[in-house]
Every structure is written in structure tokens, then in C-alpha cells.
Amino acid sequence: MVCGKQKAEAIRVQEVHIITVETEVLDIIQRTGDVKSFRFKIKEDVDFKPGQFFFVAIKIDGVERTKHFSFSNSPTEKGYVEFTKRITGSEFSQALDKLKIGDWAKLKMPNGSFTFQGEYEKVAFLSGGIGITPIRSICRFTTDKGLATDIVLLYSSRTEDDIIFRQDLDEIASVNENIRVVHTLTSPDVDAKTWKGRTGRVDEKMIREEMKDYGERIFYVCGPPKMVEGLVDILKNRLSVGEGKIKTENFVGY
Ligand SMILES: Cc1cc2nc3c(=O)[nH]c(=O)nc-3n(C[C@H](O)[C@H](O)[C@H](O)COP(=O)(O)OP(=O)(O)OC[C@H]3O[C@@H](n4cnc5c(N)ncnc54)[C@H](O)[C@@H]3O)c2cc1C
Fold it and tell me: Which of 152, 157, 156, 195 is nearest to 173 (CA)?
């Protein structure tokens, strides 16, 4: 396959239109010290929903290696698809870190049901670290579409420097009065002189304080499995949120 040319193969699977595309890296954006976004050129419109994920294959020593990542862009942002990853010491991460604009990649998409397109009047997103990726996609989508959904996002990061999509989330919240973003920092070294926001992990108290109407909301929880498990436990057992009102996405692998 010639790098830069796209070949799309459409396969119908249970009414979901999944495509495989050979493409190239369009852009690489450093988000925080160890988090990067990778954008891939897409000529045709990909029919994905905000919050879904896709499979990405890159070549490591000439061999195709695949992992899956949430779309961090919204379907309203055309011409590319993007994922955002914490660069770890793993072989795949290290290969990603060496990717250059124009390099080959193969994408298979879309997949997943952790989606939101305006189905509910009030939602809450609970997220930590890299788990922000599908939520950023959803918040961008609801804003670009002018949806009236009332959204509260509780987002925990280790330090201020680790807040992924900070500027982007600020911009979304400034143009969309229906979205409120609450940051909390979990590092014990947070300087109270410079950080005026919340500190500590998202817990029962924080949820009660930040959304008095939590009982009316649909909860979307995304992050590493341990974090998701802990938050679901709080929602179900301390706040009596019914299982049917909780949606989760586990970033298995961290
Ligand atoms: C539905 C879904 C959506 C997802 N979306 C995203 C997303 O948007 N962004 C994202 O970042 N991830 C996402 N993930 C997780 C992703 O698929 C990977 O599993 C994850 O990024 C870890 O991959 P890795 O190659 O860094 O680590 P792996 O090779 O899977 O290793 C696991 C851990 O071991 C450590 N490790 C491995 N090898 C070494 C080494 N040689 N030296 C030091 N440490 C090492 C790494 O710290 C890593 O955290 C998603 C997962 C799912 C299921």
C-alpha cells in the first residue's frame, strides 16, 4: 500500500457500518508532558458517534501491531480522526512516540456503545487522567451541535500540568453555558496558593456538592478499570444511582 492513499473497505456487521482505512499521520499534538494526540487523514466522512473507539495498526519493525483507542475528536470535526494516548514505556507507546507526519497507519472503525448524542436532558461525566478522551469528543459534539443537555464534568488529574485538553475544555465551557467543568487535583503536593480549585479524588461528597440533582442525571464513567470500579461502587452503593443510569468505559491496559 502506498503511504498516503486511502483504501476503504465497507463491511456490514449487524447494521453497524465498520470501515477499514489505510491512511497516514496528519498531525501529532503534545497535550501534556507525557500525553500526545495523533491525527489521521480521512477523506470520506466516517460515520462514528462521539464516545466510540477505533482500532489503530502501526508498523513496528515491519510488523503490524494494533491497539484500540477512543476518538478524542468529535464527528463535527471533519477531515481527520484523532486519538490521544499517554506515552508509556511499552513497545507500542515507544513506536507511537517515534511516529512522524506522513507515516502509514491502518484504522478500523467505529466500535463501542459509550456514546451520547443528546438522548438525555441531564448527564454527568466522571473521569480521571487519560479517561477524558471520549468525554472530550462528546462535549465538543454537544457544543458544536448546540444541544441543550445539562452537563457536569468532574475531571481528576494529578497536577495542573497533567490536565489533558485543559484549554479546549475551558473554551467549550465558555461558549456552552450548559456545560460545567470541575477540575480536581489528586497530587498531595498541590500548592494551595496557586490552585484555587478542588483537590482529592472524586468521591461521594464531591458528587453531592457539585451536583445536587445527581439523582436526575445519567452518569458516564471513564478511565482505568480500578477507577471506574471505585466510582461505580460510590454511585450504586452510596448514592443509590440505579445500574441503568450508569454507563462505563474501561481503559483496559493501564
Ligand atoms: C474501549 C477502550 C478505549 C481506550 N481508549 C484509550 C484512549 O483513548 N487513550 C489511551 O491512552 N488508552 C486507551 N485505551 C487503552 C489502550 O488500548 C491501551 O491498552 C493503553 O493505552 C496501554 O497501552 P500501552 O501500549 O501503553 O501499554 P501495554 O503494553 O498494554 O502495557 C500495560 C502497562 O504496562 C506498562 N509497560 C508496558 N511495557 C513497559 C515497558 N517496557 N516499560 C515500562 N512500562 C511498561 C505501561 O505503563 C502500561 O501502562 C482504551 C482501551 C479500551 C478498552
Answer: 152
Q: Which amino acid is at 107?
A: L
Measure the CA–CA gap between 187 and 184, rounded to whole angstroms.
10
CATH 3.40.640.10 fits 122-250, yes or no: no
3-state helix, strand, coil in the chain (%, to 5): 25, 40, 35
pTM of the model: 0.92
CA distance linking residue 27 with residue 9, whole number of Å: 24
Q: Whose CA is nearest to atom 32 of ligand 1?
A: 253
What are the structural domain ranges in the chain? 8-111, 122-250
The per-residue pLDDT for range 93-136, each reduced to its tens digit, is 999 999 999 999 999 999 999 999 999 999 999 999 999 999 99
Which of 93, 109, 114 maximizes ligand 1 atoms within 8 Å of its Cβ, making it the mutation to test the pocket?
93
Q: Using one digit for the tens of pLDDT, what is the confidence trace for 197-228?
A: 999 999 999 999 999 999 999 999 999 999 99
Atom of ligand 1 nearest to the CA of 35: 11
Rounded to whole angstroms, how far apart are CA atoms 238 and 254?
Answer: 26
Which residues, in sequence order, are bridge partners of residue 30?
A: 36
